[in-house]
Amino acid sequence: MSVQPADASAALPGDSFAVRGFHLIEHILLILVALMTLAAAGIEVWGILAARTISLADILLMFLYTEVIGMIAVFYTGRGSPFVYPIFIAITALARLIVLQGKDMAPDKILFEAGAILLLAIAAVVITRAGRA
User: Fold this and answer.
1) Arithmetic mean of pLDDT, 39-63
2) Cα separation of 54 and 45, whole Å?
3) Do the beta carbons of residue 57 and residue 99 sit within 8 Å?
4) What is the CA radius of gyration of the chain?
5) Which of 11, 71, 97, 117 makes an SS bond possible with 85, Cβ 3.0 to 4.6 Å?
6) How many CB atoms lie within 10 A of CB 51?
7) pLDDT tens, 88-119?
8) Could you give phi then psi for residue 14, rounded to 5 degrees?
9) 22-31 long-range contacts, Cβ below 8 Å, gap at least 24?
10) Which whole-number Å values give the CA distances from 26 to 18, 75, 83, 114, 131, in the listed order?
11) What is the DSSP letter of 49?
């Protein structure tokens, strides 16, 4: 009679070549995303300084960059829910879209995007509270 391990993950070899390879690829891609985000933020700041003006769209774009960096930090620190940060990024992107195209958009499309923001916000609250339980 064989004895099954109490932990299902104990049956899988954690040090296999494939698992280590996937973790390495994951870390390399996260570092690449962080570097690209920092570069894009730097280019945006340079453009703001060159134009000598700051718009609401610029501020919302900087929030997008900040949230991407925050999502990477959550991955490395293990604190917080990694599922909530993509939702925050989507909310900020939709808000930026409304700000940039608000005057040219039909009112019903603005309401649909606002409804999407509300739905995403509710999802973020549900995921955050479910993670605490």
Assistant:
1) 93
2) 10
3) yes
4) 20
5) 71
6) 10
7) 889 988 988 888 887 788 888 889 999 999 99
8) -75, -15
9) 30/72, 30/75, 30/76
10) 12, 11, 16, 34, 24
11) H
